[in-house]
Amino acid sequence: MKIFDRKAHQEEIRQALQDGSTGKIFLAFFFPKATRKFLLRLFLVILISYLFFRFLALPVFIKGASMSPTYPERSFNFCWRLYYLFHEPEVGDIVIVSYGSRKGMLLKRVIAKGGDTVEFRKGKLFRNGRKVKEDYVIHPCSWDLPPRKVAENSYYLAGDNRSMDIKEHVFGAIHKRYLLGAPLW
């Protein structure tokens, strides 16, 4: 079964060119006659697009400044759901996690994995007792947090903008089942 009749569409464009109307040319090129084949093609494109953006590449609007300057506030990205299908996130990876529902998603950096001990001393991150060099943290930080062990099958997440007060920042351990994927760029 042919979904698109190219000859009929070319004839329609030729006819519009002979008439000389720019509007007719535009309509003939971008909106072929609504035949059964065209409507089937349109339905398939809509269905595939819906499935792709609903389950594989979730649109994400970044509202907060917790990941700046890596991801600026009010920017847009996609959450690629297949990224961690075959491997686990590594320390330093940026992940998107669900926060109650898909409408509440967080963009954070993995700073420790299950079994690690994490603490902040005068704004410096220590993992398993060793100071961690974080080139992506640009603004000075004053966080103090006593050591805490990350549970197995969990990740400890924090944003890159640590100049915010520790009470205003959403961070901490999250179970891997809440991991949605990784940003595309």
Give an overview of the whole structure.
The chain has helices at 6-19, 22-30, 36-56; strands at 57-62, 75-80, 94-98, 105-113, 117-121, 124-127, 130-131, 145-149, 154-158, 172-175, 179-183. The protein has a seven-stranded antiparallel sheet. Helix content is 24%, strand content 30%. With 185 residues, the chain is of the alpha+beta class. The model has no long low-confidence stretch (mean pLDDT 87). Helix 1 runs antiparallel to helix 2. The chain folds into two domains: 6-55, no CATH class; 56-183, Umud Fragment, subunit A, CATH 2.10.109.10. The radius of gyration is 25 Å and the shape is elongated. The longest helix is centred in the N-terminal third of the chain and has 21 residues, at 36-56. It contains three helices and eleven strands; from the N terminus they run αααβββββββββββ.
Oligomer: single chain
**Mean pLDDT rating:** 87
Shape: elongated
Portion in helices: 10-25%
CATH class type of the largest domain: Mainly Beta
Beta percentage is 25-35%
List the helices and strands and how they pair.
Layout: H1 6-19, H2 22-30, H3 36-56, E1 57-62, E2 75-80, E3 94-98, E4 105-113, E5 117-121, E6 124-127, E7 130-131, E8 145-149, E9 154-158, E10 172-175, E11 179-183
